[in-house]
Write a structure and sequence with these properties.
The protein has 214 residues and is mostly helical. It has 9 helices and 2 strands, in the order H-H-H-H-H-H-H-H-E-E-H. The N and C termini lie far apart (78 Å). About 16% of the residues have low confidence.
Length: 214
């Protein structure tokens, strides 16, 4: 008798296939560098500097002893804010934000080493990347948790709400009995398939008082 395979646990790798993970990593990295290129180009034009890819893939220009280095560091923090938005939209799971943020900055470190041929030596570069990683982790986790806690809405809810608002006057005029019947699953009037058993035709009428019966 062949052995039965155990069903995959909730949150297993089947929910996040490798190709999807690689696609999300590539999307985050692309957004990160795209925003960095645009902001670095704008910054170089404003400061009157000649744009160079060293601003994005290098580490020598990110220094703490001049204004240019501080400005480049601020641009990288703005790129981290853009990554936070991308994480909320693309990942949407707070427990995965730390992994994606670490992978993003680790890949950037490898790219910088391959581009320059050296490990970054400026302390300002390492501090900026650490602050950037903290922003992406904290902001992404908060944003994804906020999105996870949003109530799930199903189709038809708006119509039911509008019908309930439009008929509020008639329900108030008819007394508390009609409102109680609505809560129990049936209403006054004539209809089909609206009773407690979900089938049959019925007609509800108001009950006579004891004085009227006598």
């Amino acid at each position: 008798m062949p052995r039965r395979r155990r069903p995959p646990r909730s949150g297993a790798i089947t929910e996040l296939p490798p190709l999807r993970i690689l696609g999300q990593i590539a999307a985050l990295q692309g957004i990160y560098y795209s925003v960095a290129l645009v902001l670095m180009l704008f910054t170089s034009l404003v400061m009157g500097l000649q744009f160079s890819l060293d601003f994005v893939f290098g580490w020598a220009s990110l220094r703490g002893d001049n204004t240019q280095g501080w400005l480049i560091g601020f641009v990288w923090l703005c790129c981290a804010a853009a990554v936070v938005v991308a994480e909320v939209v693309l990942i949407s799971r707070s427990k995965l934000v730390l992994d994606f943020s670490f992978t993003l900055h680790f890949i950037h470190l490898l790219v910088v080493i391959l581009y320059t041929g050296f490990i970054p030596r400026n302390v300002a570069w390492w501090i900026t990347m650490f602050v950037s990683g903290t922003i992406t982790v904290a902001g992404g986790t908060y944003g994804c948790r906020w999105r996870e806690l949003q109530p799930i809405t199903f189709g038809g809810g708006g119509a039911r709400n509008s019908n309930g608002k439009s008929g509020s006057g008639s329900l108030e005029g008819g007394g508390g009995g009609a409102h109680g019947d609505e809560e129990m699953g049936f209403s006054r009037g004539r209809g089909r398939g609206r009773g407690r058993d979900g089938a049959g035709e019925y007609e509800m009428v108001g009950m006579k008082k004891s004085d009227d019966i006598k």
